Amino acid sequence: MIVFGVEDTMKALDMTALETLMLYEEIEVMRYEIRNPVKNETNVYLLTPKQEEDPKYFKDPETGVDLEIVSSEQLSDWICLNYQSFGVKIEFITDKSPDGFQFVKGFGGIGGFLRYKIDIDQVAGNTDNAAFDDFDPDEDFI
Hints:
By secondary structure, the chain is an alpha+beta fold.
């Protein structure tokens, strides 16, 4: 009963289904809280450096209005500050060992052990803002 990758791991964390979260401390993912001033909605986006360059995350597609960035911080920093509210333990992973290197490169540097079995594909959620929506298993695995 494991989960890996930013999107699936964060879904499991939100559900408090994670017992232990494994995290590469230098994971290159930013957590943005972005507010739409027209609709008065706030969304959370987990973006890679490549995705941060894409204006679609920072503009309303319907109105073209610039969205307001409420907060932005490294995902690893946010997890370190908030993990206790989810009742999860954190284990930091290094990429200096062969196993750690494979975890970082193959699984995105984040994953965890589940408390109970869940079907992550059935979890309701918006996958349009997935952190790794350009995932290609032929290129992204070692």
